[in-house]
Amino acid sequence: MNIEKIKKYKQDFLHWLYDVKDSMKEKGGLTEIIITFIISLLIFPFVLVYYLIIKPIFNSILTLIDMRKIGLKKAFRKHFYDEDGKYDYEAEKELEKRLTLDHELHKTFHAKDLWPDAVVKDGMALYGVEGRTLLYVHEDVEEFEIPDGVVNVYHKCFHLCTKLKKVTFPSTIQRIGNQAFSGCISLREMAIPESVISIGDAVFKNCVALESVTLPSMMIEITENMFENCRSLKTLTLPKEIIMICKKAFKHCISLEHIELNDKLEMIREKAFEDCWSLKELIMPDSVRFIEEGTLNNCYALEKLHISKIMKNFGGSCCENCWSLREVTMTKDDNFIAWRHKDWEEHAKTVKPEDSECPYPENIYWSDGKAVYVNIPRLSNVVLVLCLSKEEEFTIPDFVAEVKQFAFTTCKKLHRLRLSPRLHPKARNWSEMSYINHEFIYECWPQVDEIFFDKSLDHKPFDMHYI
Length: 467
Description:
27 strands
């Protein structure tokens, strides 16, 4: 079956749905009652099967799992012997009270299966044999003081401790594992000591109540998913040594209003600030060289963005649905631009740019208030990177040679587009270049419903335009 037939069947089905809807409107509520009754009759047998067959079998499986947990528990009774070799029944009873037969018991004793010599202390936490690693903590804990001498907090140590409100670290702590505090929905603040040299991925993921975090000053990166879905986090100052913000580090931090980036930051990875709905301004230091795809997607309130003057890659693919974005600024470097202009003025007298071995100047971003461009207009290699216009109509200037695929993803109101018929789209796959056509526009810029290919805007090679 080819694509055309599939589209035809889909269209016929939609027409049928609309006919049914119109029929229901004409005949009134009786038709709706009849249809509801028929649907109820069709669903009733499935409900019976669920309650009479599926649910009892599922409960039986859960019972078998609980029996397995009890077996695991008996297997580790040897850990309740005291120093004199006598069995400590009181310790076992205390553990039974605190560790009920739920997923937490399974987690704790599974850990003991991995580390047979691990030690349970206070009935609430599991430690490595030498006490240097905190392996797991029971989910009912509200406040926990990590003992002195502990060096490592293991992966998922406090994972889903939904009642946890406070953690006190010792001066000996050095490493915190992946997802160590993820899902701690009651945790409001956290101060990580300076002794910590390594923090894993997704450490505070889904800590929806987290409002304040203090990070160690020698930390060099914000790890992947570190603050994902921390919906109460409003402000944050990065340590001075941070050089990279990893993927999805602040994804869905919907209350984040301000973040102060440090002067040594070099890279912001994919979707680092995606869905930060309250972020109004982002000031990048001039040390930033790369920001990856989707960095600021769905930042609906973002109004101002300051990019680095040495930026290697920036475009609309970083700012999809940033509908409030009105201003993109960049640190001025007049000497650099003037030097480039002078260099190319002398060079263009004798040699055409496309035949020259001298590369085009890169990373000269600039704006006319309505859009952001890269490269020098008079060299005929200008790329429209991002449109900032909030009007219904936009005209692409005649000096623009190419348009990035995501250039108009910040233009919610744009409906009419006037452009040259010889423009190229700059798609993700740079090897596939073709002239912009109706099909490309409807696929990549769906909000545009009127297009004017104006021959008077046809790009003239090497036309001289100054910034």
